[in-house]
Design brief:
Structural class: alpha+beta
Number of strands: 5
Distance between the termini: 35 Å
Order of helices and strands: HHEEEHHHHHHEE
Shape: elongated
Number of helices: 8
Helix content: 40-55%
Number of domains: 2
Radius of gyration: 20 Å
Strand content: 5-15%
Oligomer: single chain
């Protein structure tokens, strides 16, 4: 891989504790993936200034606790170890699963009487996601179900039926399936590769 651009080096050093580039690299860890429909998304890479269309990778400095939102090309420079790569792959995988959960849930809500296979797949994916985050306990309480709806499924508006369904989805899936919820699909803004806002 070619040497990083000067702006990359300068920004990295300015946000790191160490002024030595190799050591500065080691201070940063991948923390999260921010999709383009998230209000925290940055259309420009904080390290090199390149335009980003789909998602940011959130880097956190373990020494200074500073954060940088970067693009996939700059992220490749931080994959120096197997551990880092596994960490990034895990974050990307979890993010993809969360996006799938959101899409599945919106479709389930649009159906009113959800397709059994879709519901079964959603239930399985939700369990896998919650387990990966050590949050399976959330489905056991009403408060936890609300957190799942708002923090994982990105629901700002939800009904009591939705809360009950999420609350029952793991322990009593048949009862959860029998709860009919019909909510309109909320359109989110998405930017295509040319920077044009499109509906999703």
């Amino acid at each position: 891989m070619s040497k990083p651009r000067n702006i990359f080096i300068k920004t990295l050093i300015n946000n790191s504790k160490s002024q030595v580039l190799d050591i500065a690299f080691s201070e940063w860890v991948f923390s999260d993936v921010i999709c383009s429909d998230n209000s925290d998304f940055s259309p420009k890479c904080h390290l090199c200034g390149a335009t980003i269309y789909n998602q940011n990778l959130l880097l956190v400095n373990v020494k200074t606790m500073k954060e940088l939102l970067i693009g996939s090309e700059c992220a490749k420079r931080f994959k120096s170890s197997t551990k880092d790569k596994l960490s990034l792959d895990r974050i990307l995988s979890e993010n993809q699963l969360r996006r799938k959960l959101i899409d599945q849930y919106q479709l389930i809500c649009n159906q009113g009487n959800p397709d059994r296979d879709l519901f079964k797949s959603f239930r399985k994916n939700l369990f896998v996601y919650l387990k990966s985050k050590n949050k399976v306990h959330l489905v056991r309480t009403i408060e936890g179900a609300v957190k799942i709806l708002t923090e994982i499924l990105d629901k700002n508006v939800y009904t009591n039926k939705e809360i009950k369904r999420i609350n029952l989805i793991i322990s009593e899936p048949r009862k959860a399936l029998a709860i009919h919820v019909m909510t309109p699909r909320i359109q989110t803004k998405k930017v295509d590769k040319y920077g044009i806002v499109i509906s999703h």
